[in-house]
Amino acid sequence: MDAEHTPPLFRPTEGGYRWDGVAYQPYKQDGSAPFKDISRQTLFHDPSLGCELRYFEMDAAGYSTLERHEHTHAVMILRGHGQCMLGDRVVDVKPHDLITIPSWTWHQFRATDAEPLGFLCMVNTLRDRPALPTDEELAAMRANPDVARFLGG
Ligand code: MN
C-alpha cells in the first residue's frame, strides 16, 4: 500500500456506526435489486493483511443479497437482531454472534421489522464475484421449509 492510500492511524467513530474518513456507500437500488436498504463502509482495506473488513448495515426489514461464491466470509453481528440463512440452516442472530460462511454456501441476512441490523464482514482482498441463484436453485432452496419461511413471498 503506497503512502497516498495509507489511512490515518486513528479514525475515531462519529457515532451512529459511522467513522471519520470512511466513505459511506448506500447500495444503489431499484425495483429489481436483489437486496433492500443496505449500506456498506469499508473500514480496512490493506493488501499487506490480505483482507478487508467491511461494515454492512440494513434498515429494519432490509436484507442483503442472496448469493454464494468461492470466497469465505467471517462475520460478527454488531447491532440489531435478525436472521441469517446459511445453506440449509436459518439462525437467529444478535450482537456479537460470530458467523462463518463457507465456500459456495448460499447466504443472506435479514433484519427484523423493528430495528437495523449491522455486522462486520471480513473478506479476502482477492475474491471472486458472487453468483445469484437461478429460478431452479431458488425452487430447490424453498423445498426446505425453514428456508422457505425465511425467504418469504
Ligand atoms: Mn457474500
Describe the SSE topology.
Blueprint: E1 13-15, E2 18-19, E3 25-26, E4 36-46, E5 51-63, E6 73-79, E7 82-86, E8 89-93, E9 98-101, E10 107-111, E11 117-124, H1 135-142, H2 145-151
Antiparallel strand pairs: 1-2, 3-4, 4-5, 5-11, 6-9, 6-11, 7-8, 7-10
The protein binds manganese (II) ion (MN).
Residues 67, 69, 73, 107, 130 line the site of manganese (II) ion (MN).
Plain-language structure description:
With 153 residues, the protein is mainly beta. The chain has a single domain, classed as Jelly Rolls. Helix content is 10%, strand content 42%. It is built from two helices and eleven strands. The strands form three sheets. It has a six-stranded antiparallel β-sheet with strand order 3-4-5-11-6-9, with no helix packed on it. Strands 8-7-10 form a three-stranded antiparallel β-sheet. The chain has a two-stranded antiparallel ribbon with strand order 1-2. β1 (13-15) and β2 (18-19) form a beta hairpin. The longest helix is centred in the C-terminal third of the chain and has 8 residues, at 135-142. The protein is globular, with a radius of gyration of 16 Å. The protein starts with 12 loop residues before the first strand and ends with a helix. The model has no long low-confidence stretch (mean pLDDT 93). Bound molecules: manganese (II) ion.
